[in-house]
Known about the structure:
Layout: E1 4-16, E2 22-35, E3 40-44, H1 51-58, E4 66-71, E5 74-75, H2 81-90, E6 91-94, H3 108-118, H4 127-137, H5 154-166, E7 172-176, H6 184-201, E8 204-209, H7 212-218, E9 221-226, E10 229-235, H8 236-241, H9 246-253, E11 306-310, E12 313-316
Parallel strand pairs: 3-8, 3-9, 6-7, 7-8
Antiparallel strand pairs: 1-2, 1-4, 4-5, 9-10, 10-12, 11-12
Helix pairs in contact: 3-4, 5-6
Amino acid sequence: MSLLEATGVTVRYHGHDDHGRSQLWAAVDGVSLAVAEGERVGIIGESGSGKTTLGKALLGIEPMSQGTILFRGQNVHGMKGPALKAFRQGAQMIFQDPMGSLNPRMTIGSALSEVLSVHKLATSSERPERVKNLLHQVGLDNGYARRYPHEFSGGQRQRIGIARALALNPALLVADEPVSALDVSVQAQILNLIRDLSEARGMAVLLVAHDLAVVNYVCQRVLIMYKGRVMEEGMAQEVFRNPRHPYTQLLKSSVPDLDDVSRRTNAEPCSVDQAKLSPPKLSTGCAFASRCAQAKEKCFTEKPGFHEAGPGWKVRCGSHEL
């Protein structure tokens, strides 16, 4: 049984087109995925691909329009009371910049202690030692506990965000672009920390990113998203070594050195017309058809299904032989 299993997750929004007419947009369109205990899975896509919305929907932060999410076999939708509290402890999220979720008037030590207190994970006499251990696990000295959020660098704040998530001993950590706002020199340190904690704790990680090098460095398996749909899914090394979907091929061609995370940049994976990244209307065709050099007429009218490209390797494409 998977730790997290999502089936047909769809998130829709009401909006307006260029003429002011009401439209229904699909930010996430029927995505299914599974994350095993201790597994590290990456979700890659450009801005507007729906990857962050999907991550939030999986944790119940963003409401779904339809779909099913199971956490350790229990349906997340409609959870209340002790079941919901247990889910919140078991699945935690860290963000691109945790500053917005840190109380500027509380010291870091107080913020971490509060988490332990609210969830009744330590007595008042145990909390100082627990806070010290949490800071140590993310590479921070205990003396930092007396400091306030604004006194830390971006990389240090991200470590604090990770420490706060670890306080609940989660089985799953959803990391939403955790290094994209950091200096290149700091990025590898945070990625190493996430990977090391995952291995040491047996903690699963769902890493949301727009950078192939980041996901290739940390994750074992990857999902490639475009306009709310999964285009390709498989083992990260296999997908990045020989991508089958035209979109994945485009992403890979824009990365100078996929294996060297220390040389990556914060640029988007490829230069695109921003108009093409507007929220997609509900349609039956392939979301990538308008940008695909291999597109056929049916690609604009028929929603392609998944094809098996190998064991555990799926590609959503009907335009060419896989």
